[in-house]
Amino acid sequence: MSTRKLRKRRVDRGIHVRTRGLYALSSYREMAYLLAPRLFLLVGLLGLPPALDLYGQRVLCAAAVFAMPALAFDFLAEYVGLVCLGGALFIGFGGYAAGFLNARLGLSPVLTIPLGTLAGACLSTLVILPCLRLRGVYFAMVTFMIPLFARHVIVALGLLGSTEGITGLDTLPDPLIEIYVILAAVLASLFALRRLVNEDLGLILRGIKENDQAVAASGISILRYRVLAVFIASCIGCFAGAYLAHLYGWLGLSLFAMDFSILPIAAAVMGGTGTLAGPVVGAFLLTSLSEALRGFGQLRVVLYCLVLLAFILYKPEGLLKVLERKYQQFERREEV
Amino acid sequence: MAAGVLLEARGVTKFFGGVRAVRDLDFSLGQGEVLGVIGPNGAGKTTLVNILTGFVRPDRGRVVFRGKDITGLPPHKIANRGLARTFQGMRPYPGLPTYKNLVVPLNSPRVRKTAAGRFGDLDSVALDLLEEVGFERDSSVPYKTADSLPLGYQKRLELARCIALRPEVILCDEVFSGLSMAEISSMLPLLEKLLSRGIALILVEHRLRELFRITRRVLVMRFGEKIAEGPPREVLGRPEVTAAFIGRGSPP
User: Which residues from A are below 8 Å from B161, CB to CB?
Assistant: First the structure.
């Protein structure tokens, strides 16, 4: 038996090909194949909160908050070609905009969250606008620095509570409402983005990523479309910020914390970049992992990093791409 | 401006550092005309195309299109005025089906202004365009990913991308290079078809024999300067042109 050599062979189930376009409607089996992963995510996320205790719900909230900038990062990096490390920028601007509207103008969270999202997104887009001339790693570095810069501006000018922040913002009335607001936002952003990247707008953005000169030669203003993409991503990120300010009833400099820039990227890498669903799954896994390791005290960060490292070493393509492949292909061993 | 002149360059000059890419170049192109641009490697042909289409800003000189100065306009604005170009190195958008590659030009303001661009079904418009440049409509070719196409089809796709804009001029940067004789002989009728529709062409080429089958006027460049202009046979007879191609002579 030892002389037999086995080789792993992958056989495509053909789901992907057959379910593209209208063919999916041809059989219930195929529709089930298509729907199963989506339903799993939808039912899983929406059904989970009532089953959890308050602590679990809070963890889920935090995870969902991280999922938003992770989505924004994945969209910009993989579909527009802008590696934007400014997750903290979105969270900070969104949070401060919503907090300002609530604390200073006395608007209720029903208004401040959407308005704060829009205001924060406009502000973020304006700040990122001059950086759009930069390319690749330089754009990434500058967007990473902007949140740090914003912190210093807030302290130096004594804006909005300066180093203290503002406490006593209105919170949402009920923990379940709190959690469903952010979960609905995550799911809506995810499905909207997945739709968007296959629409004309998304195709143009992908074109800009692949070959910006050909896009310009086709009569399309690259800058305009890049700004639009940044605005869309900012809206997603800023919503999380505006929500976070109302979740804690507090805004402060830690909304610009680097965690919000780095963790979403870790989540995107772990979940699989370019899949959009991957970063969301990654954010939920990473946050749960971080909480599960709380018992280890000081060792927590070490273990957390080891898990991340293991992912990068053994599944560098990301969890969702692996799962997708397993879902679409049989694997069997056969003799050479 | 003479009547019927579509595109004109006046004293166009571009330096890259100390290297003179294009110097004091004048030429004009009439409506529906075809002009060949030839010259040895490094003569500044591609830089000229880049200047005309706004990808490179000239240090001196003007580019006039339909009587309006377009010098220094960004590339997308120039494309929207009806000046399309192909690229020497084609990079279609990988992973996208071939016909989806045309979504980009079909969403440009120039096309959106027209009724067909605004209300038409872009996918079928794209398939029509591909059929025009020689893709078999009922085959699977237009649905394959663009980066998997053979070079000849990629060049055609590049032309389709230009035609999608309904341009008045197409600047083709080495549209024959890398093609087999069979592919070239099917490309020539396509170019003639464009000409018959009133689209003017500027063909930047190395393949002289094929170029001379379609053009009646060529412009010869060397070291960024125009050294000759006129009908192909006459121009090639000139000693300075022969010298430029065979390699005698140094930069003045």
Answer: 214, 217-218
Residues of B in contact with A206 (CB under 8 A): 93, 95-96
Distance CA A149, CA A128 (A): 13
Instruction: Examine the pLDDT at B3 and tell me if it is beyond 60.
Output: no
Q: Is residue B184 part of a domain?
A: yes
Distances in whole angstroms, Cα of residue A291 to Cα of each of A59, A185, A280, A294, A312: 8, 23, 17, 5, 21
Cβ(B156)–Cβ(B186) under 8 Å? no
Domain span holding position B82: 5-246
Task: Give the model confidence (pLDDT) of A75-115 as tens digits.
Answer: 998 898 888 888 889 999 998 998 888 887 877 878 888 99
CB-nearest to B87 from A207, A214, A222 is A214
**B165 to chain A: which residues are within 8 Å by CB?**
218-219
A193 falls in which pLDDT band (50, 70, 90)?
very high
Nearest residue to A82 via CA among A91, A93, A73:
A73
The total number of structural domains that make up chain B:
1
Q: How far is A201 from chain B (nearest CA, A)?
A: 9
Given an 8 Å threshold on Cβ–Cβ distance, is B96 in contact with A206? yes
With a threshold of 0.90, tell me whether the complex ipTM lies above it: no
Q: Which H helix or E strand runs over A92?
A: helix A87-103
First to last CA, chain A: 13
CATH number of the CATH domain containing B31 = 3.40.50.300
Between B100, B104, B110, which is nearest A215 by CB? B104
Q: Chain B contacts of A215, Cβ < 8 Å? A: 76, 104
* Residue percentage of chain A with pLDDT more than 70: 95
pLDDT at residue number B250: 53
Half-sphere exposure of A185 (CA within 13 A, CB side): 29
Interface of A with B (CB under 8 A): 200, 203-204, 206-207, 210-211, 213-222
Instruction: Spell out which residues of chain B touch residue A204, defining contact as CB-CB under 8 Å.
Output: 103-104, 107
Question: Which of the pair, B190 or B89, is modelled with greater confidence?
Answer: B190
How large is the average pLDDT for residues A223-252?
90
Do B94 and A210 form a contact (C-beta atoms < 8 A)? yes
In a domain, B45, yes or no: yes
Please report the pLDDT score of residue B121 as a whole number. 78
Does residue B252 fall inside a structural domain? no
Q: Give the percent of chain A with pLDDT over 90.
A: 18
- The distance of A61 to chain B (nearest Cα, Å) reads 36
CA distance A317 to A325: 11
Residues in B lying within 8 Å of A, measured between beta carbons? 53, 55, 74-76, 79-80, 84-85, 87, 91-96, 100-101, 103-105, 107-111, 122, 161-162, 164-165
Closest among B63, B67, B18, B16 to B44, alpha carbons compared: B16
For B196-232, what is each residue's pLDDT tens digit?
A: 888 899 999 887 888 888 888 888 888 888 888 888 8
Residue B251 belongs to some domain of the structure: no
Q: Give the per-residue pLDDT at A163.
A: 72
Cβ–Cβ of A220/B76 closer than 8 Å?
yes
Tens of pLDDT, residue by residue over A292-331, are 888 887 888 888 888 888 888 888 888 888 888 888 777 7
Domains of chain A: 6-335 (1.10.3470)
Chain A, chain B: beta-carbon pairs less than 8 Å apart = 75
